[in-house]
Amino acid sequence: MANSPEFFLIISALVFSLGLVGMAVRRNPLVMFMSIELMLNASNLAFVTFSRFTTKFQGFHGGPSDGPVFTFVVMTIAAAEAVVGLGIIITIFRNKHTVDVDSMATLKG
Amino acid sequence: MPDILLVLAALITVGCAVGVIASKDAVHSALFLTVHLLGVGSLFLALTHQFLAVAQLLIYAGAVMVVFMFAVTTLSPKEEPFKIFDNLPSLAGIAAGAGAFGALVFAISRSQLHDHLAAPDAPLVTVRSFALDLFGPFLLPFEGTAFLLLVALIGAVILGGRRQLGDG
Hints:
The complex is a heterodimer of chains A (109) and B (168). By secondary structure, chain A is mainly alpha-helical. Chain A has helices at 5-25, 29-53, 66-96. Chain A contains three helices and no strands. In chain A, α1 packs antiparallel against α2 (29-53) and α2 (29-53) runs antiparallel to α3. The N and C termini of chain A lie far apart (53 Å). Chain B has helices at residues 2-22, 26-46, 50-75, 88-110, 127-134, 139-160, 162-167. Chain B starts with a helix and ends with a helix. Chain B is mainly α. Chains A and B meet through α1, α2 and α3 of A and α1, α2, α3, α4 and α5 of B.
């Protein structure tokens, strides 16, 4: 029962939706970043699930490896995004001494 | 028995995802996120992708979470006004999340996934085959990630050393 693609895909959908809710509900930019990480992880889980269960692409050296390569790239992007994003948040905190996203509205017309 | 472990890992993963978005304290959110990432890593292991499980442990639960904890402790943000069911934007966000989940489950239930299932004896991704593929046909994206990390490093140095640059 549990070892089926639907099981993993529904976990992935649930985690993605929770990340979306966190992104919309929370006002703390750090927690919003964590919600982005949740969504990226959900997509990683879907990539790996499809790579494990479906058979469209069979890889070059045995085993479908396109899903893991995508996951690897997404992990790298998440790391880069976390470093640069948190650097930006810390710079904003230095200048404005607040981390409430609603107060960061300088560019709002 | 493996099914019970799998369901347990899934419950930990989803429960800690709820904890991330529902904790008042950002430190608690970060700790919940760490356990969530470990849960996703164990699901990778259940999907027979050993390399990704270890990479998840090292990159996410190790490196990225250290950066997050640094930021959380440096900023030490005051408790945000936290009333989920009071204001309209929060309700709209929860509705959007529920709608996204409904749409995704609908798409999963309508997909012809079982027409494309791999045969039980199809070759699985091993660490060896993944390495041969990553350093063979997928070498260009792999080098792209190296370039991306270099750009992120330069960006972090510029953001962190802004004050010194402005003085000079």
